[in-house]
Amino acid sequence: MALAVFRAARRAPSIARSSSSLCNRFLRFSAVRYAADVTRDPMTGELTSLPDIEPARLKFIKNTDPRPPPPSSSLVFGQVFTDHMLTIPWSANSGWDAPKIQPYGPLQLDPSCTVFHYAQTLFEGMKAYRDKNGKVTMFRPDMNMKRMNVSAQRLALPTFNGDALLELIKELIRVDKHWIPQEPGYSLYIRPTLIGTQRAIGVGPPNEALLFVICSPVGPYYPQGFKPIALYGTTEYIRAAPGGTGGYKLGANYAPGVVPQKIAAKKGYAQNLWLHGPEHYLTEVGTMNLFVVFKKDNGYIELVTAPLDGMILPGVTRDSVLALAREHISGKSKLTDLPDNLVVSERPVTMGEVKAAADKGQLVELFGTGTAAIISPVDRIGYLGGDVHIPTDPDGMGPVSRVLWKELVGRQLGTIPSEWSVTVCES
């Protein structure tokens, strides 16, 4: 009910003013509900449980100088942002404060904030889609909320009610839904971020934090059709190690990859293939999860990805690929053109195994998966001074990735009915 009141207030002409009676009604309702959700000691009146994120407390400040969305054809990934953003402060003394949807703009942070000195920052990547009838959907956003909480625990940042944050993200999307391009392959990229904002020099759990969400309209990753990429098998650097933070979506995991990426580009490769240990185990490709498809001696087709051993990020697209393949194998949801003799493995794979399979003609394909690209095919890997070549079909894809990509895109856009597609609004 509270969000319904808020939406009505947002549609009214006078919503930008705090004096709006409808906005005040929303805030009064929010305060009553909020007070009922917080536990206080009956003797002292002190809080015994800190407030979690509460959608009913949402405040809205309308951007009075909105911009028209740019032409879809001009979009560059991650460089254009919508008119509004969501912010939710947190403190160790009072818990999560009132959420606020406000004009997109700079954050005011003290130079001593711990995010700047100790990389207390994590983020997620999600997408919203708008079909030709105006219906807006998201793809498996519950998984992003769960992973964000796991990352927060790893950094000693505050955790939160994922369902509550998701409802607020949906409201932000509804506010700026006209920014979502309707052309096929376009979407709204959503970036929830959590940072430590304690104003102090010193390593420890921060007593203040800020959760914010920004949105960016984006086009298809391959606007001219699939173009397989070349990888450089990186042995000089590693992305993650056992017991480290590779399995979490932390800002600190990404900046150290820039120098190895520049080295790979200088050698003529598009991305790094992160190899680990003296055995050169395949872990991830660039910022994506990695899949390899082998043809086994017994004729079976094996779809392989590295196990979630703490070094591998549990990607939403990774999980979706595995789920689709396993549902096909079990007969629960057969996918046309996907081999019936398919097996799925989450196991370690070495570059030695990949090279040997390529030499014997048993390497079917290799591809990365992630939110931005969905599926990214690979046609060669630079390894120890030579190239390992990987088959691709004329359309740039392979026989397994093509089928999985079509199914994933269909479910994301809603053209294939799926419980993974979560409705934000009908129009």
From TrEMBL:
- List of residues that carry N6-(pyridoxal phosphate)lysine: 249
Required co-factor(s) are: pyridoxal 5'-phosphate
- What's the Enzyme Commission number for this chain? 2.6.1.42
Which GO terms of the cellular component aspect does the record hold? Answer: mitochondrion
What UniProt keywords apply to this chain's record, in alphabetical order? Amino-acid biosynthesis, Aminotransferase, Branched-chain amino acid biosynthesis, Pyridoxal phosphate, Transferase
What GO MF annotations does this protein's record show?
Answer: branched-chain-amino-acid transaminase activity
Keyword flag Amino-acid biosynthesis: yes
Q: Which PROSITE patterns match?
A: AA_TRANSFER_CLASS_4
Q: Provide the catalytic activity annotation.
A: L-valine + 2-oxoglutarate = 3-methyl-2-oxobutanoate + L-glutamate; L-leucine + 2-oxoglutarate = 4-methyl-2-oxopentanoate + L-glutamate; L-isoleucine + 2-oxoglutarate = (S)-3-methyl-2-oxopentanoate + L-glutamate
Q: What's the top EC group for this one?
A: transferase
The record's listing under InterPro entries reads: Aminotrans_IV (IPR001544), Aminotrans_IV_CS (IPR018300), Aminotransferase-like (IPR036038), B_amino_transII (IPR005786), BCAT-like_C (IPR043132), BCAT-like_N (IPR043131), BCAT_family (IPR033939)
The family annotation for this protein states: Belongs to the class-IV pyridoxal-phosphate-dependent aminotransferase family.
Q: List, alphabetically, the PANTHER family matched.
A: BRANCHED-CHAIN-AMINO-ACID AMINOTRANSFERASE, SUBGROUP IIII AMINOTRANSFERASE
Query: What is this protein identified as?
Result: Branched-chain-amino-acid aminotransferase
Origin organism is Sanghuangporus baumii
Q: What is the lineage of its organism?
A: Eukaryota, Fungi, Dikarya, Basidiomycota, Agaricomycotina
